[in-house]
Amino acid sequence: xxxxxxxxxxxxxxxxxxxxxxxxxxxxxxxxxxxxxxxxxxxxxxxxxxxxxxxxxxxxxxxxxxxxxxxxxxxxxxxxxxxxxxxxxxxxxxxxxxxxxxxxxxxxxxxxxxxxxxxxxxxxxxxxxxxxxxxxxxxxxxxxxxxxxxxxxxxxxxxxxxxxxxxxxxxxxxxxxxxxxxxxxxxxxxxxxxxxxxxxxxxxxxxxxxxxxxxxxxxxxxxxx
Length: 225
Ligand SMILES: *Cc1c(COP(=O)(O)O)cnc(C)c1O
Prior knowledge:
Blueprint: H1 3-21, E1 30-34, H2 40-48, E2 53-56, H3 59-65, E3 74-77, H4 86-92, E4 95-99, H5 102-115, E5 120-124, H6 141-148, E6 154-159, H7 168-189, E7 195-197, H8 204-209, E8 214-217, H9 219-222
Parallel strand pairs: 1-2, 1-8, 2-3, 3-4, 4-5, 5-6, 6-7
The structure holds pyridoxal-5'-phosphate.
Pyridoxal-5'-phosphate (PLP) is lined by residues 34, 36, 57, 78-79, 161, 200-202, 216-220.
C-alpha cells in the first residue's frame, strides 16, 4: 500500500471512531481530502484508494489540477474567494465553502446562472472572532442567506476554521458555536442547513464530536506541506 493509501485508511478509521464515540451514524460525516500544494499524481493516488472529494484553497491551483484528474472527482474550493475569480472557480468546483459576503453571494448566483451550474454553497463564519481571519461575523450570516435565495446555487450550511494552537476546550467551543448558530438560523429562517464543514487534521475528532458533516483533511493524508 502507498503511503497515501495507508494514511487514508488511518484517517477513515479515525473518522469512524470519532463518529461512533459521538453516537452518530458511520456515514454521518464525509472526508474531504485537501490536496493543496500537492501535485496531481498525489491526488491520483488518493483517487486510486477510493476518494472522490478533493479540496483546494486557491482558484488557480484548482484550475491547474482538476483537469488532470478523472471527471468523477468532486472539487471543493475551501479557501477565500475573490470576486474576480468566481467564474473560474465555478467552472471547476462543485462546492464553494467560503462564501463570506452579500456581494460575493450575488456574484456567484449571477455567474452560476450564466454558466448553467448549480454549486453547493457554504458560508464561512469567523466564530472565534480573530481579527486576522476571513469569514462572516455570526450576526452577518442571515443577510447572506437571504441574498442567496432563489439563485441556482444552493446554500447547504456553514463552514469555519478553528484558531491555530487553541486548547481542546476552545476547539469544542468554536465548533459547538458553529452548530448552535446553524440551529438558530434553521429555526429562524426555516431553511435546511444540514452541512457543517469543520475540522482539519489536528482537530477533526473534536469537530466530529460537535457535529461536523465534512472534515477537511490535508496533512494527515498527503503529508506535511
Ligand atoms: C489547508 C486547509 C485544510 C487542511 O488542513 P490540514 O491541517 O492540513 O488537515 C482545511 N481547511 C482549510 C480551509 C485549509 O486551507
